[in-house]
Amino acid sequence: MGLVSGKVAMVTGGASGIGRACSETLAREGAQVVITDIDGDGMAATVASIEAAGGSALCLHHDVTDEDAWRTVLAEVKSRCGGLNILVNNAGIAIGGPLLEMTLEDWRRQNAINLDGVFLGTKHGIPLIDQSGGGAIVILSSVAGLRGAPGLAGYSASKGGVRLFAKSAALECAAAGLKVRVNSVHPGIIDTPIWTKMPPGTLTGGANAINPEDLAATTVAKRAGRPQEIADGVLYLSCDLSSYVNGSELVVDGGMMAGTGSRTALLNQGSE
Asked: Which residues sit opposite 89 in a β-bridge?
């Protein structure tokens, strides 16, 4: 028996990176997994990986910024899976660069996905999870949601927002007697495609593309984290092992927040 056997789990942004690792991990531990994303090919690859390992998964196209889409997707989850026990609000983007050069369009786009998407998922996911017997919502934030960094003002704002949103949502659920725990996960420098999507020099000021291993070389762990290491934390917060953990933040950063490392390592932080 796996840690989430018999549970239904939904992972947004499950087409790659941390989202894919979370989906595969929850499926391996016995959950029926619903993967949502706007990347159809990536979702299909995640489903294929899960099914090849003997797990159960399906995928649904999903724009997390669209409230009607949330209603439609969750209705489909209820219809096809019978309910929902675990929601991993993972979908996110990172738009870096100097604050004075950031456009209002980019600010709003980043917040629409990173913050509005989490709000909508939590708002519409809580009733279904409670009706399904209870469970957990896990929100992917970042160490950039715990402290500021040059070049990440907009990203930090969105990730700091979901950190406190998770705490408030947890308290509201408890006060209302709803059987839903809400926690956040704060990755450090993780080796995922998010870095290759940033223009060269976004954080370091140089002309080279961002290499997560270079950024992480002077952290306590001396390396970038792996998506699986974040997925393991998400699994913990999704299962009964964390039944007494609510409104908390789980930092998985190789020691970055411990306060050591070079200036470069301290100023550059990311997640998905």
From this structure: 139
Question: Which residue, 148, 39, 140, is CA-closest to 96?
Answer: 148
Return phi, psi of residue 246, to 5°.
Answer: -150, 135
> What ranges do the domains of the chain cover?
8-267
Catalytically annotated residue among 128, 137, 138, 155: 155
Instruction: Look up residue 27 and give its two tokens.
Output: 């499926």
* Alpha carbons within 13 A on the beta-carbon side of 33: 36
> Does 155 participate in catalysis according to the annotation?
yes
| pLDDT tens sequence across 221-253 | 888 889 999 999 999 999 999 999 999 999 999
Using CA atoms, how far apart are residues 137 and 125, in angstroms rounded to an integer? 8
Q: Take residue 67 and report the two structure tokens written for it.
A: 């409230």
Residues in the chain: 272
- Residue closest to 188 by CA, chosen among 150, 222, 157: 222
C-beta separation of 19 from 11 below 8 A = yes
CATH number of 8-267: 3.40.50.720
Q: Is the pTM of this model over 0.85?
A: yes
Q: How large a percentage of the chain has pLDDT more than 70?
A: 87
